[in-house]
Structures are given as C-alpha cells and as structure tokens.
Amino acid sequence: PDVTWQVPGSNPHITPNPRVGHAAVMDLLHSGVGVYEAGSMTLDLQPLIVADAHVVAQFTLHARLANGDPYTNTYCFVFALRAGRICAVTEYLDTLAQAQQGTWDALTT
Known about the structure:
Elements: E1 4-6, E2 19-20, H1 22-33, E3 42-45, E4 49-51, E5 54-64, E6 70-82, E7 85-93, H2 95-100, H3 103-106
Parallel strand pairs: 1-7
Antiparallel strand pairs: 1-2, 3-5, 4-5, 5-6, 6-7
C-alpha cells in the first residue's frame, strides 16, 4: 500500500481500521473534517519531533461541531516517511472526550 492511517481501536465508527491506500485515507480525512463547522478549526501545535524517518506532531484541536457545539481535544500523530513521502500515520487522541463531545454521533464512516 502507498499509505495507511491507523486510529485508536476504541473508536467503533472508523472501519476498516487501519485505512489502507490513498483513496481510503482521503475518505477517512474527508469524513472526519465534515464533523466540524467549516472554517472553525484551529490548532495549537507543539514543536515537532523528528527522528530518522518519523515525525511526531502533538496538537490541541479547537473547533465547532457542525451542530455548533464547541469541541476541544488533544491529538498526537506519528508520521512514517519513505522516500520523503508520508507512508503511514498513527493517530492518538482522547476517544472518551471525542465521544462525550458528540463527534461520534456525526461520523459517517
């Protein structure tokens, strides 16, 4: 596969998991962004950690859900690189906070 994206297994709405292939990853990203009100997302990005062929990005996401409710959660993405391109992403977040704030209700994946 050219790329994979793995999310926490505790989120039952993301299937299959991991997503494998460009089209499947883009579908996951598109459905995830659709949970939020357009233009409402901001990130508080911590300094990136780079080691060999990996980059770690930690950030807090602030947004409004499509229904107008506020959303805040902390994320950590681990990117694996091959030939200068992202080949795998492992995503970590507080899935309990995600569920309690209503994002699972809006996921369509």
